[in-house]
Each structure stands twice: as structure tokens, then as C-alpha cells.
Amino acid sequence: MNTGVDASEGDFRARRGAKLPEGQAVGTQEDAIAALKTVYDPEIPVDIWELGLIYTVDINEDGSVFAEMTLTAPGCPVAGEMPGMAADALVAVPGFGEIEVVLVFDPPWTPERMSDEARVALDWF
Q1: Which CATH superfamily is domain 5-121 in?
Q2: How many alpha carbons lie under 13 Å from residue 32 in its C-beta half-sphere?
Q3: pLDDT exceeds 70 at position 51
């Protein structure tokens, strides 16, 4: 089981999990979204999905998951923690095996990525 966070050369990624047993049902995109909605930015009272911090979630036939996420600001003090928090949520989903979450800053996050739910929670209407 891999549980590392790699911060070499400013590259933040987290890996979790192990291969799924042969024949185990694979989780769905909806499962991934539900898991990511349990992860909150420590500085903002809104989950990372509604904030628009998740750019991609790719679920492979073998149950492995690759996700790209960003932060509201590149200098965010929790940059090294956020990929691990997202990976921890995803690896807890039955039907997901090996997880990799990578932090990217291209394209940069903008408030337009937030859902209406996030805008209401932050009183940004």
C-alpha cells in the first residue's frame, strides 16, 4: 500500500491504496464526487468539489483513480496537505484501488469555478 506525498521540485502529489482484487466492482464517478465533497479547504468552509478545486477525476477499469486538483492560491499554506486529503477520501470508497492525486496550477483557479452552492455559502452573490 502506497501512502506517500511527493513534494520534489514543487510537485505535490499523493498516492494511496492498492490494486483491487480481481472481479471486484469498480466505483463510479458519483462515488468519487461524493467522497471529494467530504474534503473541506481548511481555510474556507466549503468542500473542494463545490469550490471547483477538482479539475479531473479519471476512473480506470481496474479501479485505479487519477485526479488533478488545484488551490485557490499557489501560495496556500496547506498545499502539501490537500492532495493527501483528497486521496484519503477517494481510497475510502469501496471499488477504488490505487489512487493518485496531483496538484496543478494550470489553469489557475478563479472564483468562476465555484458552484452556486459555494457562492451561497461564502455569500458571494
Answers
A1: Fe-S cluster assembly (FSCA) (3.30.300.130)
A2: 23
A3: yes
